[in-house]
Amino acid sequence: MNAPVKTVFDPQAARADFEILSRAVYGKALVYLDNAASAQKPRQVLDAMRDFAAGEYANVHRGVHFLSAAATERYEAARETVRRFLNAGSADEIVFTKGGTEAVNLVSYAWAMPRVQPGDEIVLSVMEHHSNIVPWHFLRERFGCVLRWVDVGDDGSLDAEAVDAAIGAKTKLVAVSHMSNVLGTVPPLKEIVARAHAKGVPVLADGCQGAVHEAVDVRGLDVDFYVITGHKLYGPTGIGALYAKRAHLKVMRPFNGGGEMIREVTRDAVTYADPPARFEAGTPAIVESVGLAAAIDYLSAFDRAAVKAHEHALYAYARERVRAFNWLRVVGDAPGKGAILSFETDGMHAHDLATILDREGVAVRAGHHCAQPLMERFGTASTTRASFALYNTRAEVDVLIAALAKARKILG
Amino acid sequence: MDDSLRELYQDVILDHSRHPRHFGQLAEATHTGEGYNPLCGDRVKIYLVLDGAGRIADIAFEGKGCAISQASASLMTDMLVGRSVEEAEKLMGGFLHMVKGEADTGELNADDRERLEVMAGVSAFPMRVKCATLAWHTMKSALEGGE
User: What is the pTM of this model?
Assistant: First the structure.
């Protein structure tokens, strides 16, 4: 499990691990730049899932037989892998979920809902993904909570002071992204947490993008809740995780009811298991947990700083190249941002642009990116987004640029 | 350029999207409809004036969206003005079959089929069919919904 860390990063070597990257679309080489939506899976992840399903699979926890014990061991080992990845203090602070969305909903339902009164406030930034907005809208709709929005600067930056200024006596939680899926902005999370804690307010960080590109240390950040999803981390869909401080987990009410999450059920009453099992009702995503662990092992075997530098160099190169297009406006230029390039184009709608790029083999995302309040902030309905992963190359940026020029010729 | 792309973004489509016909509002509208595509955020609003004989005396649309959705709305308004509701419904039905790539385009006459043919390229782009049909579905709801 603890593979030695490779100190130099070679994207070409990494590409060989991703079979899908060698396929063609419409007779053109695939240039996959939709990584912020979902990343491709390396052979190591696919093999781990297949081998586990073929050789060790059974349901977890309740069985006394050999395979159930083996599967339980793998499932709990995956929890330990997530703990290590996030540098949590204990594996008991890691709850497996269906993904990032379910993790935020879990906090909203099990932690926040029993604690809020009408007029209580949730502070969140305008750059949040809908998965870190709608669960808080539920509190507004059902309990009369107030959503206090923190704006970003014109360059997409989010200041800790602005978050601090929005925190008042009625604030129950700060919910903020560790990296915007549209702007690439990486806010000063540690400072935000420190300022919120100074006012006695806990912080939830949406790490669905952040954990892919930044080394995460939940104890160093002192963050209360941290959310990740598997499929953006080169792992499978259907699994994610919530890190929550033990003190919060202890007081959270059950979420889904069912098997696995109980201590005892009688006709008249039910008592609940301790966390994390309390929040993992039903048969979990067992094969996917093995895949997630394999993905984390895969990523962790690289020098994360070297991977980040590679991705950032791709972004910087693409950012520089698009300066030549006076009809293109980049949305999100915050200092220290991640490798996500979103832009608007004069006279070309994002969907038309993405259709033409697609025929050149270039997969990008066009639309509101599940971040409509942010689109509104920038006065647009949609942007086109190229998001970079460890396996992308400079040559692929050149293909993107050529495809953009071609689209302009057709539509402009 | 690949042929399907050329067909999708042919000059007629680009011309309609850059210079949409009947673009704007109608203060005297007897019927309106609003359409929204939650996948992309495109919006369209249709304004209609139905006269006493059940004819579309005037029509307008406003909206924001991609070239396909805007061109489709523009072409639709161009073709529907002056028609009876019954004729409009036949045209709408035929169009919806056509952009889904179905051979049977219902009761479209030859002239209408020829004019609509510019939109037929959309059928090669399944992810974009909803862009083309947004205005037409909105038109349907305007006729059904009334003022």
Answer: 0.93
